[in-house]
Amino acid sequence: MNDGPSYTVLLFHSIDDRVRLSLKNLGNIRPEPFEKVCTALKQEFDVVGIRELVELISDSAGKRGRFLAVTFDDGPKSYALNAAPILESLRIASICFLITDCIGDKAIYWRYLYNYCINAGFGKDLADLVNAEYGVSIKEEDIVSFTRSNYNREKTKLVMEEISKHIIAEEEYLEKENELFLEYEDIRRLKESPLVEFGIHTRTHPVMKGLDDEEIRDEISGSAALYRDRIGYGRPMFSVPFGRLYKDYDERTIKAALDLSTGVIFSAYGGRNGRGQSLYNIRRIPVHEGMLGAGVGKFVRSLFDAEAGPEYREAEKRLRESVEKRS
Ligand SMILES: [Zn+2]
pTM (2 decimals)? Predict the structure, then answer.
């Protein structure tokens, strides 16, 4: 096992025990196992805030140790309801990356809506709508992978409109699946804690690779502008939706985010970081409850030598060459 310093960043989503079909099977962890994980993390790792972790990665002197930071994506309501209070009681810092259009459930998140349809038994109907819009004939079980790898902002908007007409009306969805996202009031209150920080995760959570350059800038700059207006000062840190390099995003997203954010950018394809990992592409390990099946202790110890998939070695090299070439 590699005993050099390691910098692990975990990625959580919702920490919820309410019934919400939109969240089901999308990385949710119930509060009780989440608390167990956090307690075990504190025993096995040096748990630090995200800024300290970023400094440690870029510090050439390289403090020895096994460091870990906790992040959340999407800005779920359960961050305020469950995650932040548990983390506060354990004195663990965290950063929460917001889908800014969805704050206060103002906009519907397409992936949650599709997930609702599938979990509410309308998978076949959703497949029909997707097939009509894209001119394809995919099966119900392929909706998620198809709409992700063929993401198109306009088509997604049109499918959502069709869902509202044929499967569940927008108002009914918002009423049934209420409180999916943080309110501004939650954010204001949470910000009072020195252990809480916010970052951005685009306006609408598209698959960035499916966007043109102008749409990429709009997603990041719109999100950063809202952050400056209503959430914090200066430039926020950025986490890339879905986060698999060259599958969900490419160098165009990184270059735009380098211009518009702090330049500290997070992926989500697994693996811990070593010293000198590019700060514009910090690896994170997504965690869901299924990973805890063999016990919390075993899961936490499995993080000691977690590596990104072998294909990401080449992908990171390609990204580095492309980003560092820019003038
Ligand atoms: Zn996300």
Answer: 0.97
